[in-house]
Amino acid sequence: MPEHPETLADLRTVRVGGTELCVRDRGSGPAVVLLHGTTGSLGVWDAVVAHLGGAVRTVAVDQRGHGRSGRPASGYGADEYTADLLGLIAELDCGPAVVCGHSLGARNGVVAAAREPAAVRGVVALDYTPFIERRVLDELEARVRGGDRVFASAEEVAGYIRGRYPLMPEDAVRRRVAYGYTREAGGYRALADPAAMVRTVEGLRRDFAEETRAVAVPVTLVRGALSRLVSPDAFAATRRLRPDLRAVELPGVDHYVPEEAPERVAGLIREMVGAAP
Amino acid sequence: MPEHPETLADLRTVRVGGTELCVRDRGSGPAVVLLHGTTGSLGVWDAVVAHLGGAVRTVAVDQRGHGRSGRPASGYGADEYTADLLGLIAELDCGPAVVCGHSLGARNGVVAAAREPAAVRGVVALDYTPFIERRVLDELEARVRGGDRVFASAEEVAGYIRGRYPLMPEDAVRRRVAYGYTREAGGYRALADPAAMVRTVEGLRRDFAEETRAVAVPVTLVRGALSRLVSPDAFAATRRLRPDLRAVELPGVDHYVPEEAPERVAGLIREMVGAAP
C-alpha cells in the first residue's frame, strides 16, 4: 500500500499568463504533468504519484477555476486550458513532458500535444475521447450544476462523494474532501468555481476530433469499461480515427480512472515515459 | 406546493404468497398501484400521491427485498416480483388496477400486464424499457453494490443521496433518508437488502421485449431526457417494437422521474386512469 500524502504543505503557486496555478512538483527525472478532470483537483493523482515513486518528476496541477488556482471570470475553453499547460511546462522548464490527463485533462493534453509537439512528448488520455454524445454532455452539465451546494459537515461532503463516485476507494474519497472543499461561513463548499465549471462543460462541447487526428506524438487512449462518459461507440470511433494509437480498456473501472486504478495508470505513465521519444 | 406526508404511521403489511409486503393505501376510487425502482421504497411516490389528491386510490408498495417488506433469500426475478404484484391486487381486491412503475417497477408492471390483463388495466412505465444495453446494467450492478455501506450519520446518508441522485429535489432527498434507511449499531444502513439488490439487477438482465410486444392493455412509455439508464437507442427500439404505445420524453429529468417530475407523473397517471378501459 503506497502512502497517501494528503498534505497541502508542499503546494506552490506558479504564475502562468495572468493566472496563478497551484502545483505539486515532486521527484526528479523525466517530467510528467498530471491534469485532473472537471471539478477535480491535483489531489486525484496522489495514489498514482505514490505508485510512480521518485524516479520521475511529477507535476500535478490545479487547473484554472479548480482547487487552489486562480479563477478568471472567463476563459474555460480548450484554448485557455492548453495555453496554461504549455505555459506551465515552459515556466517550470520541464518540457518536453509526458502529460497524463483525466477527462477534461485528457482533452487538454491531446489538444496541447497537437498544437505544440515540442513541449509534449506523449499523452496518456484517461477516459475522454472525441465523439462523446451530446446527451452525455447534457447529463454531465446537469450533474456539475448539481454540485454547487453548501454542505453542513465534512461527513456530508464525504457522503456526497461516495454517492457521486460509487466505485471510488475510501482513501480517494478522503482526499477529495481534503483537497477539493473548503470550510466557509455556513458549511463546506467545493473549491471548484461553479461558473467556471459550467463554462468548462460548455467548452467540452466543441469536439476535438481534429486535434486527435493531427496529434503526432504517442498517445495512449484509456477507457474505464464501466464509464458513463466514454461510450463504447465513442471509443470505437476514436480508434477508427487513429488505429495506430495504443488503446486500453480497464475492467471494473468507471470514469474515475486515476483514483480507481492508480497502479494501472502509473504503469501506463511509466511505459509512456520509456517509450516516448 | 403539495404536502409531503413523510410519516410511517399509515403503513401496513399485506401477506402475499409467503411474503409480507409493506403498503400505503390511500384515497378511494380507481386503484393505482405504485412500484418503486431498485433500492427504492414506497416513499418515492409521496409527491406523486400528493399531486393526485384523494380521487384515486393509491397503493404504494415496498417491493420484496426493499423498505419494510419481507426479504426472502431468493426470488428476485420478474416471475416473483410480478407474482407479488398480481397477488397484492387480488388480496386488496383492487383490480383491474392501473400500475405506475419506475425502473424495476416499470418492468414488473409491463410483465404483469402481459401475463394477466384482467388484473392490470394500464401501465405507466417510467424510464425503463427493453433493449437496455448490457454495459448499462453492468454499471448499475456496480453502483448498487457500492450502496451497501454503513453511514456514520443521517447527514452522511443525505450527502450520499445528493451525490448519487444529483437532480433530486431536497424534499425527495429527505424522504429517501426517512423511508429507505435505518439506524443500527454503528450507524445507518439502507433497508434494501444488499443480496436481494444484486439478484434483482441480475433479473433485469433478462430482457422483456417479448412481454412488451405481447402486452395488450394501454401502456405509456416515459423516458427522462437525461436518463443514463434508458438510452435514446433503447427507447427508439422500444418505440419501433410498439409504435402504437404512447411515448413521452421529459426534458431536464434523469432516471428518477417520480421524484424529479411528480406533477407530470401524476398527470400521466390521471390520463391513464381516464383512458384505460
TrEMBL record, chains A, B:
Could you list this entry's UniProt keywords, alphabetically sorted: Hydrolase
Q: Which GO terms describe its cellular component?
A: membrane
One Pfam entry name = Abhydrolase_6
Q: Which residues cross the membrane?
A: none
What the entry lists under InterPro entries is as follows:
AB_hydrolase_1, AB_hydrolase_fold, AB_hydrolase_sf, Epox_hydrolase-like
A single Gene Ontology MF term assigned here is:
hydrolase activity
The residue ranges of the AB hydrolase-1 domain are 32-266
Database matches in PANTHER family? HYDROLASE, PUTATIVE (AFU_ORTHOLOGUE AFUA_2G14860)-RELATED, MONOACYLGLYCEROL LIPASE
Q: What is the protein's name according to its record? A: 2-(Acetamidomethylene)succinate hydrolase
Q: Which organism is it from?
A: Allonocardiopsis opalescens
